[in-house]
Amino acid sequence: MNKDRCIHLSYPDRLRQVMRGAGRTEDSMIRSYQPAALPPRRSGDAEGSGTTLAQRVAQRLRKDILDGRLKAGTALREIALASKLKVSRIPLREALRLLEAEGLVESSPFRGAFVAPLSIAELRQLAEIRMEMDVLAWRLALPNLSDEDLRDAAHIVDLYEKSDDLDKAQELAWQFHEHLWNAAHRPLLVGMIRWLWTMGTRYIRICIEQRFKGAPVTNYYRDMLDAIRRRDLAAIERIIRTAYPTACEAVARQIAANQTAVSPAAEELASDPSTTA
Length: 277
Description:
This protein is mainly alpha-helical and 277 residues long. Helices cover 60% and strands 3% of the residues.
């Protein structure tokens, strides 16, 4: 058996190793990267706390990776990045380790840290696993759902459909599932799905972004609500097994289209010795 196809959920690095190298940008766009200020220090945080600062740096970088300001394959040179973020390299390294655990950053002894590439193979595996685990979550939750649970879920769907903010829409999409799955009383299962959601954040974002750009979309949430109200597990499973592969392939086409674009800035940086650490 091909080891790259063997997924162990307790080892996130195995999943991130799938199909490394394909279509990867070889050098950094860090010189043109202009980060916003770090999130403010929370009340009660100790001044100069390395852990707290690392979390704030990770929060800043996470947002810029998800927003596309730091593109897949961008080398995260410590000296240049620490200078731009106005922090020392110690909290920066800790922040990069946090992001690596989330699958947003990868590292190697020779290349250092870089923004993890988007992988169609990884996308499809995540969709396959999510289908099976989501069906299980609905099977366990469905008998325990109350009318109040359904009213809350309908309100979340209303907010999702009206939202014109990508970050908020993505948050609401997760809230819809988590709120109803909590009725399963299986926190380990929901936690595992949450980890898969985090691993797939950038892919989910592309999917939601297509709705914002006017692409045709299915009535997934409305159809799911209708099936949930009827306690129709068979209908729920049909919706999932239709919607997930459809969304997956739409995102795969977008990734493939993006990978064909050549960045002049990246070409310039590839021959610029000042971008090395």
